[in-house]
Amino acid sequence: MKKATKKTVNEAADWAGANSALYELGGLVIVHDASGCNSTYATHDEPRWDQIPSLMFISALTEYDAILGNDQKLIDQVVEAAEELEPRFIALYGSPIATVMGTDFIGIAREIETITGIPAFGLKTSGMNSYIHGASQAYQMLVKRFVKPSDHHTGINLLGVTPLDHYGSAVHLRRFGAAHGMVSCWSMGCIWQEITDAGQAAVNVVVSADGLAAAEEMEERFGIPYCVGVPIGTAGSKAMSELIEHKKGFLHSRKPGHRIVLIGEPVQMHTLAWVLEQRGWDSFRVVSASEQHVGNMVQTEFEEEIAKAAADAEIVIADPLLRPICPPQARFIALPRVAYSGRMYLNEIPDLVEEAGDAWLEANQL
Amino acid sequence: MTEPVLPIGRVTSDAPFESSLEFTPQTRGTWTIAHTPMLVPGLLEIFVCPEGCLRGVVLSAAEDRLLDRFAMVTVKEEDAVDGDMEKLFYEGVCDILDAMETLPPCVMVFTSCVHHFTAIDLPYVMTHLRKRYPQVDWIENYMNCTMRQSKLHYEEVTARQWYAPLGNVEKDPDQVDIIGNYFALDPDSEIYSLLSDQKIYDLPLCETYAEYKEMAHAKYLIYNMPVAKEAARDLQARNGQIPIYIPYTWSMKEIEADLDRLADTLGIQRKDFSRQKELAEKALRKTARLLHGRAVQIDYSATPRPLELACLLLEHGMNVTTVYSDAVLPGEQDALQRLRVLAPEMELRAAVHYRCRLWHDLDPDCLAIGQKATYYSGTRHFVNMVANDGLYGYTGIRKLCEQMQDALFYEKDPAMIEIKAKGCFG
């Protein structure tokens, strides 16, 4: 039965993705939940929790609030905190119980904004979708509410840089970005002005699926084109530079198959497949839980289906916690991700960008 | 809005802080709903929940190398609205068990808040699971953190459910169970000394499922944590076992009275513990001398009676400046009244109020007892105590003093308070 999981874990949920996207941006972020969501996120999904301060809280929802639909309590508490903490913006979204309650986060946010004068928005998270779903909404909302149009365009924005997918590569990604006249990096190491100035970029570079919706929004609003891929290894970096110059393109392999199965965030996995193809490998299959389809991929979050997709693989590249369901005859290459194994292998998450990626590939005989 | 910090002299109610948005400090040593059932040897946990809820419990199991005793069924949005939750639950659990080479002796299934609010017919599901797998002991449990104001807190329910498979069997008058703790009661404690002729069963010490089931034979149950009250009540109602509440108290007077009460209830001879009491007093005096006025901070995750501990230390000349607790806990009212006279300026600070987010390095030179006190003070001199660590009585006081002395001289890495469920390993 596909929804039963016996040996592995599951990915971070949508509200964790939204949290991760908004973490460093100075907003007041409230997850409407009893208690567990924030604890889970702070422990497993947010390596920055103790290093960088944030204003992320839980609403401490009780059964009476749920049964009686006590939105006023939430509004009052948020208004009080906002008036004291003076955040740049306020974001509200929820957990499964808020979904069952039918909480109108958009309406509640509108009311809070009217009272406080602080920009506020609601997102549709339910705790029943992947982190990409949540982060994607958060980034898209930032475009809609805060990015200013510009008459001149130069440089790039990096979209989709969160620790969930790029913990090991974030610093190097920013360096790559800087070498291409980076206007903003969404959103690790990002200052607020980068976000509002993002409309000045000439091209968006989508480095993970959660940046796609923001890229499409900026294309529609400001005419900024985008390309998709990660500068993995020297080859990937050179290829991405060309995509940036041409202001379009999607770095992915054109040799589908099943001999090499890559399981993880789809943009990164597609790029890795392309890089491996340049190094003489072929027959790739990308498997991802992302609801946002990226290229040709097997979309699933369920253990049984992941195992089936990898059943004939000769090489599997995936988070170490997926090893138990991969075929024993396949060579397993560990590529940990915070979005999957949380903090368990934090120190082993590699930097894959430019020459660091080459070193990783060499070390893994790829 | 009330500030989340008050001088204890101004605390007049059990809930001194208004409800607010809540912050999560990075202190993870307390055991969660994913960890505590693992105390039952051989038990398999199956969580049937949305993925956001599953994330915390499954990674808890993974970090503690317990994934072989953990499985889950993912609830998606369509499951919450299409009215087929019972089918998902039943088929998912069956799928998990049917894939196992050997069935576990016991399975604990967990629902989440969503099930409660969509009114799943759990008894129907459990009836069919019991019918299909009669050789398994089935336990229902509920990860419904939303139930924060109900008559029974969900943690009390969980503690009760640890003992659900224990049936009504013949009682052994010489057997006593210790229930409700996730750490074994200290075998050096006066309780063990008093019960030297009794057979004692303590869940954390059970190594096999058969040994765990032997707990049903105890005539008497001792519980130390207030959260175990419901478990005690249930075992009394179902099995006729007689509960005796011997709280984790720091009051010398109460320790003496409780030990006498325990002896009298069991019909055994009282013992003289004046030597242990003297050693405790000596340890307290020595600790006070070594501290030399250094501030001490305590929190509620270290002990269910943080105010009482504060009283004990203050009465022995130590400078307790702060207690972190979001409420005045059960059994602490006397301690509160004493503190209002003894140290009216001592601070009572909330631990999860949103303003706590702004508290950093409140007193890095202090000695902290408990993880939240450690976190907020910023100290590297701390006693990493969780849920009393099984310490009881005069011996418990002496041992705590020894840990305080050790903490005074030796720094610790605060990263240890981020390890989930102190002491729980697969």
UniProtKB/TrEMBL annotation, chain A:
<feature type="domain" description="Nitrogenase/oxidoreductase component 1">
    <location>
        <begin position="28"/>
        <end position="242"/>
    </location>
</feature>
<protein>
    <submittedName>
        <fullName>Nitrogenase molybdenum-iron protein alpha/beta subunit</fullName>
    </submittedName>
</protein>
<dbReference type="InterPro" id="IPR049939">
    <property type="entry name" value="NifE-like"/>
</dbReference>
<dbReference type="Pfam" id="PF00148">
    <property type="entry name" value="Oxidored_nitro"/>
</dbReference>
<dbReference type="GO" id="GO:0016491">
    <property type="term" value="F:oxidoreductase activity"/>
</dbReference>
<dbReference type="InterPro" id="IPR000510">
    <property type="entry name" value="Nase/OxRdtase_comp1"/>
</dbReference>
Automatic annotation (TrEMBL), chain B:
<protein>
    <submittedName>
        <fullName>Nitrogenase molybdenum-iron protein alpha/beta subunit</fullName>
    </submittedName>
</protein>
